[in-house]
């Protein structure tokens, strides 16, 4: 089974020569954004209103979040974020600010949201997104997880590279809440369809998507997949 740590300078791998590692996920971000846009382009008006896996957000809101969070230039992103936080004084909340800005972006017409995502994908594909923070693992995580958030309830398959899914999973396993860390300390979650694993201990076979959605605490997901209604 391939060791994805060769791609992950942030993982707990031995201290060896890191010249072959990568912190630039531009190609994977571009490909995933394109896949998201391809899905959204086919939706009916009713499907845009489908609840996503991200609690409280519709598919439309999740798409709006990606347009704002990934597609906004860094200076503007910081500016709009700070303004949104200040608007909430005396009880500021970053989470509420992100929610507000994402919903605001989601008010655009569906065609405009799709076009914005495609334009952002093109920027990443052309290598025009500069600054490590904007093409690193955090940005990849935003795109992969929220892409799955909107695709899964629609019954659509989002094509994400196995290495990108593995990178997102490993990073989350390192910083996950205690309840999730308790699982990966005692169990090895094996993505049988992607050639990677996270954790230690007895093996639990699953798919890469199920593992990622479990690690990110999506409601109803266990390490082996969605929990049945009767569970």
UniProtKB/TrEMBL annotation:
Gene Ontology molecular-function annotations: isomerase activity; metal ion binding
Q: Pfam families of this UniProt entry?
A: MDMPI_N (PF11716)
Occurrences of domain Mycothiol-dependent maleylpyruvate isomerase metal-binding (ranges): 34-151
Family annotation (SUPFAM superfamilies): DinB/YfiT-like putative metalloenzymes
Name the UniProt key words of this record, in alphabetical order: Isomerase
Isomerase as a keyword of this entry, yes or no, is: yes
Q: Does this entry carry the keyword GTP-binding?
A: no
Specify the domain of life of the species encoding this protein. Answer: Bacteria
Known InterPro entries for this protein? Answer: DinB/YfiT-like (IPR034660), Maleyloyr_isom (IPR017517), MDMPI_metal-binding (IPR024344)
Q: What is this protein called?
A: Maleylpyruvate isomerase family mycothiol-dependent enzyme
State the species of origin: Cryobacterium zhongshanensis
